[in-house]
Structure formats: structure tokens, C-alpha cells
Amino acid sequence: MKMKPSLSIRQLTKQFDSNLVLKGIDLEVAAGRFVVLLGPSGCGKSTLLRTIAGISDPSSGGIWLKDRRIDAMPPEQRNFGLVFQTYALFPHMSVEKNVAFGLEMRRVNKRDIAHRVAAALELVGLADYAKRLPKQLSGGQQQRVALARAIVIEPDVLLFDEPLSNLDAKLRDTLRDDLRALQQKLGVTSIYVTHDQSEAMALGDEIVVMKNGEIVERGTPIDLYRRPAYRFTAEFLGMTNVIEAKLRDRACQLPWGDVRELENPSERDVEGVAIRPEDLAIEAVETDHHGVVEQAMFMGAATHYWIRAAGKTLRAITSGGRTAILPVGQKVRLVPPPMLHLLRAHHPLQEVAA
Ligand SMILES: Nc1ncnc2c1ncn2[C@@H]1O[C@H](COP(=O)(O)OP(=O)(O)OP(=O)(O)O)[C@@H](O)[C@H]1O
Asked: In this predicted complex, what is the ipTM?
């Protein structure tokens, strides 16, 4: 397999009129890595992806593919494969013609085109659909055609902008798993935009968390989930409870009196401790309670609780559906894990600016 290049984005900004949508993005994507840009609507993920694709020009900064600067290059010369939320297939062309289009533009010879189109359709599981028109396919199949069209050109980089969001839940999971397997097989450097945290965790070698046109932090899904530096990441990635606690040396005291050790006691500018809902056990009690069940929702594999305690609503998730569900109004004790993790309030750029 040909070695795929890395991608470097340096000090990239994008301004629409007076609106600074990207505020100096620095991002390295190592060769063959699958990096997910995750953040709430409007944080600039799509703008960043479109700038990498060359559909949108940066206001300042640069983009390098290995050591070749590409930000002034027209999109068609970048050799990037793009897959968008809307499939953007040519409606009057068959599946194979749609997939062949990029190769015809590159003046690849006919025999090679036929061979490569067949191989790409095989890879996305559509070998039997070559002669169909897009309208004769389901949404999931149309997105597979778009994927075949993106990979058939043997791209240096694959760019995805919420490609699964028009599909229903079941199809979305299947296509997500297939997409990941395909990316690993091809080893193509990939950037994927989503606002869905579970999609980001399932797909990414790394997740880059964005907020207001800036990168908050990046890391592997496990690191960001288990040890986020910032409150924003913790809340965006796992509905984490953030609790104001009194800090005492290497430990903290929770509002209901319990004392717990800290995983990262030397952290500065902290906003609270993190307790993920699945780590917060609850016990029904009659006296000495910490909180009261505000809402309970049975979800099959788990039951989700909203507990009113310490002046706020905390989330708790208990696994298994075998035990009885605690009723609304039930008094409970909260049992957090023995070791807690401190969260920082500000993200790095704010700290630099301060
Ligand atoms: N062509 C444009 N002209 C003016 N403003 C734009 C343009 N494109 C995007 N914006 C603005 O840039 C900001 C970031 O938009 P962008 O689409 O990149 O966000 P996003 O994180 O991808 O959100 P979503 O998930 O909703 O697409 C928004 O405030 C948006 O209104």
C-alpha cells in the first residue's frame, strides 16, 4: 500500500464579514489517522473541513500535505475524496457512471476505470447495483455510492461532513461500522465532522473537540472520555456531572460531605470534579439521604436517573434492567467512585489571552 501523507493546518483563520469563525486553528493529522472534529452546531467544524477541501478559502494561515503547501490549490488538484451529508450524486447517471466520473475527469484510461469502479463498488458492498440510478437506491446505498466515488480516485485524504446524519438509526450504525473498517483497510488519512459524540467515539483514532472556532482539546476517545482536561469536553462527551467541591490537598469534599481522593490534584483553574453518570451509584434510603429521584427512565440495558441533590440535578445511569426502578420522590444516597478527576474551566486560548 502506498504511504499516505500527513496533513498540517497552521494558524488557520476564517472570517465572514465581521464574524471570525475560525480563530487560528493548529492541527496535525498523522498519516493514515482517522481524526474526528466534534463540537456543537455553529462551532466552525464544517468551515474548517470546507477550507481543507478547498471549497472555501482561508482568511489567513496555511495547509500542508506532508511538505507541500496546498491552501491556494483548487479543490480538484488536491486529490481529496469528499463525502457530505447530502449524497450529491448525479441523478441521471447510473451508479457506475457516478463512481467513474472523477476518474474520467482525470483522463484515466477506460479499462482502468472499469476495473477501479468495480473494485470500489465491491468495497462498499454495491457490486450488484452498478447499473441502477440513484433514485432506485435507499439513502444508505446512495451514501455508499458517494463513498465509492470518494475512494475510487485513491485520495490522499478523505473528508467527511456528517455523512450519516440523513440516515435512520440502524442504517447509521451499520454504515458507520463499514466506513471505519474501510478506512482502516485503505489506511487513508481521514477527517470526519460530526456533532454526535457516540459517532465520534466509535470512529475516531483521535477526537478534536471544537468550540466557538477554536480547538478546546484533542485526544484518543478513551483519554478524552476518562481524563478530559476541560469541563466543556467532559459535558459534551459524556453528560458528565460537574460538581463544585472543596479542595483539600490531594482530596476533595463533596457538597453532601463525602471525601474523595483526586486523580489530578495539581490541576489549576479548576471548575469542579467530574462524576460520570455511570460511575455514580445510588442507594435507596429512608433517612440521611443526599438527594431525591426527580425522574427515572428505563432504557433497556440501563436505567437513567435524574437526582436532585446539592442544589442541582445530577445524572446517574445504572446498568441492567433486573432491579426494580426507583420511583420519583425516592430518597437516595449518592455513592461516587473512590477517585475523582478535576476539570479545568478555561480552554488554552483563553488562558493565553488572559
Ligand atoms: N458562507 C458563509 N457566510 C457567512 N457565515 C457563514 C458561512 N458559512 C458558515 N458561516 C458561519 O460560520 C459559523 C460556523 O459555521 P459551520 O457550518 O462551520 O459550523 P458547524 O460547526 O459545522 O455547525 P453545523 O454542525 O451546524 O454545520 C456559523 O456561525 C455560520 O453561521
From this structure: 0.94
Alpha helices in 62-157 (DSSP H): 95-105, 110-123, 139-151
77 C-beta closer than 6 A to ligand 1: no
Is the minimum distance from the CB of 21 to ligand 1 under 6 angstroms? Answer: yes
**How far is the C-alpha of 190 from the C-alpha of 76, rounded, in Å?**
17
Domains (ranges, CATH) in the chain? 7-226 (3.40.50.300), 240-273+337-354 (no CATH), 281-335 (2.40.50)
Ligand 1 atom with the smallest distance to the CA of 43 is 21
User: Is the whole-model pTM more than 0.80?
Assistant: yes
Residue 45 Cβ < 6 Å to ligand 1 = yes
Asked if residue 211 has its Cβ within 6 Å of ligand 1, the reply is no
**Which residue has a Cα nearest atom 12 of ligand 1?**
21
Per-residue pLDDT reduced to its tens digit, 166-192: 888 888 999 999 999 999 999 999 999
